[in-house]
Write a structure and sequence with these properties.
6 helices, two-stranded antiparallel ribbon
């Protein structure tokens, strides 16, 4: 991101990547220019971190094949073999290399960057997760503000959360991208947040700036983004 002494924010968005969040394509606001990640991504990661302990516990109930919409014990492509005694996806998320090991890896990297002691011994997976989550949640602001590798960690947190949520709740990404939000701020800088929408939605809302569009407007929004400088009028 921009640092003190950087030029004024006058370049076109595609010419000024240093003014964008390291994790999402949104242009940083004036009060975010010394950060690596925007506050939208920080808040989203904080919310996801807060759900991991419950999701991890719920994954145990999903270990039985067929217990959840996505808990399957069949090997992909196998048609004549019996189902495995446990569901593969929740097992991989709860076992070695899954949620706990991945989040501990993030904590260890942050500890190293902060010149802290190495990871303490906390016991098994569940106790390790319960000890790790508060450390990450309490320092997500620091990471987004000052840790230049935070983009990869935000991506990992988001991926783990999506996988666990898909197993436990059957959540699937059903939205399609229609472009980047064209709404400009007081400095005439476009928001740039990626817009995704369900084909059945009556309204969409930009996660970056909060602008809302009704169905007729968002159906035309893709063409507007490609062809016009000004955005459509936002719904109240």
């Amino acid at each position: 991101p921009a640092r003190p002494g950087s030029p004024a924010m006058t370049l076109a968005p595609d010419q000024a990547p240093e003014f964008r969040c390291i994790h999402c394509p949104r242009l940083l606001h004036a009060d975010e220019l010394n950060r690596f990640a925007c506050r939208v991504c920080e808040d989203r990661a904080g919310e996801q971190l807060g759900k991991f302990i419950d999701l991890y516990g719920q994954l145990e109930a999903a270990l039985t094949p067929g217990s959840t919409p996505t808990a399957t014990g069949h090997v992909s492509g196998a048609t004549k073999t019996a189902p495995l005694p446990v569901a593969l996806q929740p097992l991989s998320l709860r076992g070695p290399g899954g949620i706990v090991d991945s989040l501990l890896g993030i904590e260890q990297r942050w500890r190293h960057a902060l010149n802290w002691h190495n990871l303490p011994l906390r016991g098994g997976y569940e106790s390790s997760l319960k000890g790790c989550i508060p450390v990450l949640a309490n320092n997500i602001g620091w990471a987004c503000d000052a840790y230049d590798q935070v983009g990869a960690d935000l991506k990992l947190i988001n991926s783990l959360h999506q996988q666990a949520d898909a197993v436990v709740n059957g959540t699937r990404e059903q939205r399609v991208p229609i472009g980047c939000c064209p709404v400009v701020n007081d400095d005439q800088v476009p928001c740039g947040e990626k817009l995704k929408v369900s084909p059945f939605a009556n309204e969409i809302r930009c996660a970056g700036c909060g602008t809302r569009w009704g169905r007729e407007d968002w159906l035309r929004l893709g063409a507007v983004i490609r062809g016009l400088a000004a955005p459509l009028a936002a719904a109240a």
